[in-house]
Amino acid sequence: MDDTIFLLAFxxxxxxxxxxxxxxxxxxxDKRYHxxxxxxxxxxxxxxxxxxxxxxxxxxxxxxxxxxxxxxFYHEEELE
Length: 80
What we know:
This protein has 80 residues and is α+β, with helices and mostly antiparallel strands. Helices cover 41% and strands 28% of the residues.
């Protein structure tokens, strides 16, 4: 009986940790991708040849890069 309660508690803790890690990962990934995009390109950013198309909304983003701090900026472009 005691072993069963311990096993259930252990599985509950592991499941809780897995859920917490998943939620934190999704929030961080979303912020990392979406925080740096828009219409006005910041001063000092260099245009790259990297282009991505968001499969969710079919928007096209050109990547601009700042050599000073390594940050990337995603500029929304019109699809041709």
